[in-house]
Amino acid sequence: MDKLKNYMITFMRGRYGGDHLNSALIIIGFSFLIINVFLNNSALSILVNIIMLYALYRGFSKNIWARQKENMRFLEITKDLRCNFKLIKYNFTDKESKYFICPNCKQMVKVPRGKGKIEIRCPRCNTKFDRRS
Ligand SMILES: [Zn+2]
């Protein structure tokens, strides 16, 4: 068992490993895989294989610079989407406060809940906007 572990450590040395883009690829790949259990579509099956192979290729890649650049680009493209998910999650879990996105600079702003209609001033860009808290 130790031999296998040492082999894996040696094998992964200098290789890229996981990042946000790879996690997303694996989640999307598995989702399609599960959907395809019901659809049994060959095109979707090929797509699942491409996504999974691409995730593997990225994980074992030794061109770390190129993989980091891809990940940065992915994070930039999905920034708004990830921000919206975070907003929904915070508003759902935090019963004391409510969270809004500044319409000007997209900064997340936290205000106390249950104060009625209030004027919010963004701490980053000083833009004022009305929301119901
Ligand atoms: Zn702002």
How would you describe this protein?
By secondary structure, this protein is an alpha+beta fold. It folds into two domains: 2-77; 84-132, no CATH class. It has five helices and four strands; from the N terminus they run αααααββββ. It has helices at residues 2-12, 20-39, 42-60, 64-77, 79-93, and strands at residues 97-101, 108-112, 117-121, 128-132. The chain has a two-stranded antiparallel sheet with strand order 1-2. A hairpin with a 6-residue loop joins strand 1 and strand 2. Helix 2 (20-39) runs antiparallel to helix 3. The radius of gyration is 21 Å and the shape is elongated. The N and C termini lie far apart (57 Å). The model has no long low-confidence stretch (mean pLDDT 94). Residues 102, 104-105, 107, 122, 124-125, 127 line the site of zinc ion. Zinc ion binds at residues 102, 104-105, 107, 122, 124-125, 127.
Sum up the structure in keywords.
133 residues, 5 helices, alpha+beta, single chain, two-stranded antiparallel sheet, binds zinc ion, elongated, 2 domains
| Elements, N to C (H/E) | HHHHHEEEE
Low-confidence stretches: none
Measured on Cα atoms, how large is the radius of gyration?
A: 21 Å
Bound molecules: zinc ion
Number of domains: 2
Percent helix, as a range, is: 55-70%
Mean pLDDT: 94
Strand content is 15-25%
How many alpha or pi helices? 5
What's the main sheet like? 2 strands, antiparallel
Strand adjacency order, main sheet: 1-2
| Shape summary | elongated
Class from helix and strand fractions:
alpha+beta
Distance between the termini: 57 Å
